[in-house]
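I hope you will forgive my troubling you with a question about protein structure. You will find the record immediately after this paragraph.
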Amino acid sequence: MTSGPRLLIVEDDDATRQLVAANLGAHAYHVTQAGDVRSALRAWEAERPDLVLLDLGLPDRDGSTLIRRIRREAATPILILSARVDEREKVSALEAGADDYVTKPFGMDELRARVAALLRRSSGPAGDPEGRIQVGPMIVDVTRREVTVAGAPVDLTPREYELLRALLSMPGRVLTKGRLLRAVWGDAYGEEGHYLHVYVSRLRRKLDAAAPPAGAGRFIVAEPGIGYRVRNPDEIDGTGE
């Protein structure tokens, strides 16, 4: 799995996009670039980034189209980068589902600080101030995209990591198969339950094998006919330490 948070920057100005991508890339972020909504949607489906940086004034469609598309299936943080200064435009973008707004021109130090803050908050109520989520002996470091169990690193593929993140977005609660499929793979996979079963099985094996002795399903529970959930910490035996 690629180390470092995965970012998607959607900006039609080549110079601005490349400058931002280069700066963030130099600070351990994995950056994918797109210059319009169409290519951004393709990148979103392929990459499932941890955060989206989005310009509203794009050549094919308004950036708010992408906000609404992402919000249909994910809580991925969205940071608006725009030269628009009208307060109504900012409010409209935030109401559509954006999380923060930076007006051009902006300083890179400020931008990185906003990105880091959004990534920390995206870990949800289960996360600590550093953006780490702990469930028993399992720790997911959101800012580094690293997973450990009892201190041992667990090597996950990008899709396995996204699946785990989706489950951790609602710890202890059941997520239906359709919701998980749409969150990780997109709308086209909403009915592919067998596809999800394969990935969940691989993810469970990797997590369970990292902290023996442990029975199958130590961290992830299958709810037959419905979906899956991550166990609450008090359901997991011991700490693995």
